[in-house]
Amino acid sequence: MADSNPGLGLTLGIYYMGIVFSSMLYGLTCLQAFIYFVSASRDPWRLKALALRSS
């Protein structure tokens, strides 16, 4: 009789890939915010606060 349960190996692998992908996107967002704060010294503090809030 065939087992209809796909098992946890495939499920946990996809879950791990999702975590890795979302961590990479978060890292890119942090890098983008860092580059903005280093290079945007003439922007008003309200714009910097908005960028900080959205990252």
Outline of the structure:
By secondary structure, the chain is mostly helical. It has one domain.
Would you kindly provide a written description of the structure presented here, covering whatever features stand out?
By secondary structure, the protein is mostly helical. It has helices spanning 8-39, 45-54. The termini are far apart. The mean pLDDT is 82.
In total, the number of domains comes to 1
**Class by alpha and beta content:** mainly alpha
Tally of strands: 0
Helix tally equals 2
Mean pLDDT: 82
* Computed Rg: 20 Å
Largest sheet: none
What is the string of SSEs from the N terminus onward? HH
Stretches with pLDDT under 50, minimum 5 residues: none
List the helices and strands and how they pair.
Layout: H1 8-39, H2 45-54
Features:
mainly alpha, 76% helix, 0% strand, 55 residues
